[in-house]
Amino acid sequence: MAVAFRDYYEVLGVPRDASEDDIRSAYRKLARQYHPDVNKEPEAEERFKEVAEAYEVLRDPEKRERYDKFGANWRAGQDVSGASGFEGAGFGGFGGGNGDFGDVRVEFGSGGFGGGEFSDFFEGLFGSRGTRRRGGFGGFEGFSARGSDQEAEIELSLEEAARGGRRKISLGDGRDYEVNIPAGVRDGQRIRLAGEGGRGASGGPAGDLFLRVRVRPDPRFRLEGRDIYVDLPLAPWEGVLGTTVEVATLDGTSRVKVPPGTSTGRKLRLRGEGFPGPRGGRGDFYAVVEIEVPKRPTAEERELFERLAQVSKFNPRER
User: Fold this and answer.
1) Coil, strand or helix: which one is 203?
2) What pLDDT does residue 267 have?
3) Quick count: other Cβ atoms within 10 Å of Cβ 144?
4) How far is the C-alpha of 97 from the C-alpha of 90, rounded, in Å?
5) SS3 sequence of 59-73
6) 8 Å CB contact between 286 and 300
7) Range 267-292 average pLDDT
8) Residue among 182, 149, 189 at smallest CA distance from 167
9) What pLDDT digit, counting tens, does each position of 171-206 carry?
10) For the chain, what percentages of helix, strand and coil (3-state, to nearest 5) are there?
11) Distances from the Cα of 281 to the Cαs of 165, 207, 250, 271, in angstroms?
12) Are 24 and 14 in contact (CB under 8 A)?
């Protein structure tokens, strides 16, 4: 059964003219609410995926522009109808369009010749990227040209991007690859598969296939440079007395020691447990404290807080 499409702005609960900050704030709030590790309701996981998909599109200016123009058909917004005679036979990928191939989306460019402008096309035929033979029609017997480069998207979680390693991908045309993902790859970077793009013409070399990395946003972690930040909620007495708590990290969990007298905003650092760098080493991991109070204290809790208010001389507004 087909699932009805829901407007991405409606999913995030923001107006169509919402700023990037508004969209990010709405996403973080909803992602926390529906994350499967937190919300055990049957519909929570699907709702979480829906929210993540909406954010992935609206946070990207180019994707958002296509979505605003084409709505539910935004993925096809760059399709190009090849002119008669340029459907690809003998031209190695000319005149295609976009194709959705499982978890990898191949995007050909906006031009009608496999991603290049007309100048690139003729350069490929008669310039530095092609060879020519005299004779035949117009003084040329034929030509050889390098095939067009193609681009696909490969989606990774933040943990997968940090860890790297081998990953299998499949394209809809039957091609399968086992790709080596470098540890610490970042959103927007490309992985080159040499010779896996469009076919060359008349014996010319094939183009390359570029896998553009898309790192899925994670409601738990914020990546700033190579440092990872998470929010660490604490009860008032944990901040006052100190404690040791477990926090989720890219590698699983780690124990963080909270010193006595810790207030909201304090950053507790785990050295070397952040995101990997391109030349080795890792950033740091920061747990950012948020002191939270019970919204509905029991009668006993309320009595204890009232007693504390009577005996305590602490005034946070006096420095």
Assistant:
1) coil
2) 96
3) 17
4) 17
5) CCHHHHHHHHHHHHH
6) no
7) 92
8) 182
9) 777 788 888 999 999 988 999 988 888 888 877 888
10) 30, 30, 45
11) 17, 34, 15, 11
12) no
Confidence of residue 146 (pLDDT cuts 50, 70, 90): confident
Most confident stretch, 36-50, 122-136, 143-157, 213-227: 213-227
Residue 25 carries which side chain, given as an amino acid letter?
A: S
Q: Closest Cα partner for 268 from 225, 239, 236, 235?
A: 239
Contact present, 287 and 270 (Cβ < 8 Å): yes
Sign of CA dihedral 175, 176, 181, 185: positive
pLDDT for res 126: 35
Inter-residue contact 214 to 187 (CB < 8 Å): yes
Q: Among candidates 77, 151, 73, 146, which has minimal Cα distance to 108? A: 151
Rounded-to-integer distance, Cα 281 and Cα 257, Å: 24
User: Is the pTM for the entire model greater than 0.85?
Assistant: no
Rounded Cα distance between 184 and 276, Å, is 5
The separation between the first and the last C-alpha atoms of the chain, rounded to the nearest angstrom, is: 63
Half-sphere exposure of 313 (CA within 13 A, CB side): 0
Residue with tokens 């599109």: 57
CA distance 210 to 148: 11
Instruction: State both tokens at 93.
Output: 């990928």
What would the pLDDT profile of 31-88 be if each residue is shown by its tens digit? Answer: 888 887 777 888 888 888 888 888 888 988 888 988 888 887 777 644 333 333 323 3
Coil vs helix vs strand at 196: coil
Q: Locate tokens 């009668």: which residue?
A: 299
| Distance in angstroms (rounded) separating the CA atoms of residues 179 and 161 | 13
